[in-house]
Amino acid sequence: MRTIGWIAVNVFRESVRDKVLYNLLLFAILMMGAGYLLGQLTAGQDYKVVIDLGLGAMSLFGLFIAVFIGIGLVSKEVERRSIYSLLAKPIHRYQLLLGKYLGLVLTLVVNIGVMAIGLYAVMHYVAWQFPADFVATWDVPPSDPRILKAVALIVVELSVVTAIALFFSTFSTPILSAAFTFALWVAGHFSADLRNFEQVVQSPFAAQFARGLYWVLPNLATFDVKAQVVHSLPVEAGFMVLAVAYGLTYIAVLLIGAVTIFSRRDFK
Amino acid sequence: MTRNNAIALAAILVLMAAAVGLQRLRDEWYPPPETTEETLYLTSGGALQRLSLGYRSLAADVYWIRAIQHFGGTRQQVFLPGQPAGAPPAEGSKPYRLLYPLLDLTTTLDPHFRAAYRFGSIFLAEPYPGGPGRPDQAISLLEKGLAAEPDNWEYMQDIGFVHYWWDHDYQAAGTWFARSAEQPGAPWWMRSMAAVTLASGGNRQSSRQMWQSIAQTATVDYQRNHAHRALAQLDSLDAIDLLGPIVQRFAAASGAPPRDWQTLVRAGLLAAVPLDPAGVPFKIQADGTIDVDPASPLSPLPKEPPRAAPQP
Fold it and tell me: What is the pTM of this model?
């Protein structure tokens, strides 16, 4: 466990050295610009748009980090040939893979955490421009902790995407891994359509096949509660528990698959 | 197959089965919305909803901003100074034609986007050149909102308001106000508004009462400003009712209506040129009738039904 922890910390350090956290600067500029400009464009809906934009940016920036760093976790070591020196050390291959996975998840958590603080700051800034009694009538107050439910599920979704990228990167090239990961991410957001495919096709086989894909592919739409929290609609604790449990289970499936493939891989 | 691989495979199968089980549980306890549109995978709201992946709410904001831009931009283009109030759009032109589709897409992407329904209905119902003059589309948009939130009293109030202000259908307006009053969270005065509308809808005093209530409870500046504008329009109608007899008296004495207000000031019938609440002089038409100037932000004034004439 200690070894995995050290590898994870080193992956995090490497991502900082690789200037991955620079995206926070982009996020800050985006949010400050939005906070300032949107009032002119949205007929009083700047507060809602700021929250949508903040949550959307967290998810999108995180997606790019998860995919593009995730696919390089293994392939970079192979390309640099540093994998030989790593495997020569008393480190199991599963420890290396899990450490790398957790390191990237740590990077994502730090990123999303800082972005969430930035989002709350901009929400307070927008609210500060209005009288307190008026702000009190808003569905989502500027310190609303319910926003964190959406943030938490974004982290879980990105952890699943990271596991997908890592899984593909254990046996495929970086470009193909990125393509496969993005394809699964898109398919994961079409899950409701796969489930209801019999409404648009007549072939029972196609409908059954789509239904099968619905069960097997990651259902990433489960982790999208952004619209609910923006409108202060209830996101029940039971739903959160099921969504997180589903995400963790799926991650476990992918990591076991990745470890199995990586353990058998011949680097000669 | 080695022992470790077999264990891994077994673990994958067990965990995959657990994932399927959890998802089934989630579907049972929190059923996902059924896809009912027939126009799947076309350039419809439904297709857009799918293409926006996990960013529906953000995509809705983009369409909302586009709707605002379209409304504001078109308004600037067609609201030319000197254009007669209520004049139809030029032959072949279709101003505001994208407004309803844009609002429809916005609300399809985000069915809980209250501002899109409420402001959208205000924009849609506003008569040309201030808007497309489509109260039917305004009601349709609000009914779509009610499909998403069946107990939203504000949408019901807004539908009643469109019937009241633009359709002059006081029976329908009163019925919607009464329905709104029964919803949770509806203000106490909604019940009396329903009663007054059913009893004396179209009466200028009841209109004023309605707008004052809306102005006091508005949560957004645009809504409040809209209510204040309507109140100023009602004040203008009151002022026109007072000025009308003066103009008629002059016309009876001189054989023709006055050409301008200065004539009445010089004749000693008025102390000064009368201004509407926006500070723009009223306009005397060639036939002696009085209206707000087309350049006034209060133009066009709402058309009142015959029974809404001033009370004795």
Answer: 0.72
